[in-house]
Design goal:
8-stranded mixed beta sheet; 31% helix; alpha/beta
């Protein structure tokens, strides 16, 4: 099967958010949100291509300050990233209920989007969560100072938001994640008491930036993990 990938650009506050859509044969409701730092949408081709082979289409874009969209990180914030995702969802007319895949910082954006859209499935990978005090602060020294306070994430609103989520939830953690303590994914799953289904998957040997590449070294592990992701995403469309 030849991958069908459509490139697009979406205007946002003077920028053009560069993104692409991997067309799926069965569903096209899934939006993937990448992480912080040097992350871009192209870093997730392995997962997105595998999902496409299973019939699941995904839409992803480079946030301001990342990849082909360009700009400086200081021109964005966690709150801006949420608004950027909303702009793409609206411009691309992605049908709701949505399925969301959030990776690292993108996991928190995905959680926030459940308050703004109808979301029936959440896959949160190596998920970062943040204190509300950091939400609107532009990326840079001030933002870093807020989030680097000891356990600043503990008072995040993510727990309360997920307490109202009634869809399907899969949280993927890396066994050797030096960025995200296991307490965070464990508490995210525990918070979602009203979810239709909820599951924590800890990838043995995984690191924060090396989950799917590691799994791909053993086909059976990769296929099993991918199957759990697909099941979660498709539960949201049943």
């Amino acid at each position: 099967m030849t991958a069908r990938i459509e490139q697009f650009g979406v205007p946002f506050d003077g920028w053009t958010l560069q993104g692409d859509h991997y067309a799926g044969e069965r569903s096209n409701h899934t939006v993937l949100l990448h992480g912080a730092g040097a992350s871009t949408r192209h870093m997730h081709h392995l997962l997105r291509n595998a999902l496409q082979q299973r019939g699941v289409g995904t839409t992803c874009f480079d946030c301001v300050g990342h990849g082909e969209t360009g700009g400086e990180l200081s021109q964005s914030s966690v709150a801006s990233r949420t608004r950027q995702a909303q702009a793409v969802i609206a411009a691309r007319r992605i049908e709701e209920p949505l399925s969301l895949i959030g990776i690292s910082m993108g996991a928190y954006n995905a959680i926030r989007l459940t308050q703004l859209h109808s979301v029936e499935a959440l896959v949160l990978m190596v998920p970062g969560v943040y204190t509300p005090a950091a939400y609107d602060v532009p990326f840079g020294p001030e933002f870093s100072a807020v989030i680097r306070r000891e356990r600043s994430w503990a008072d995040t609103d993510a727990w309360d938001i997920l307490a109202h989520f009634e869809g399907s939830l899969l949280v993927v953690a890396a066994e050797h994640d030096a960025v995200i303590p296991l307490e965070i994914p464990e508490r995210l799953v525990a918070s979602a008491a009203r979810a239709r289904q909820r599951e924590l998957m800890v990838v043995e040997g995984g690191q924060h930036n090396r989950v799917w590449a590691l799994l791909a070294e053993q086909r059976e592990r990769f296929d099993a993990a991918l199957g759990r992701v697909v099941d979660t995403l498709e539960q949201g469309q049943r």
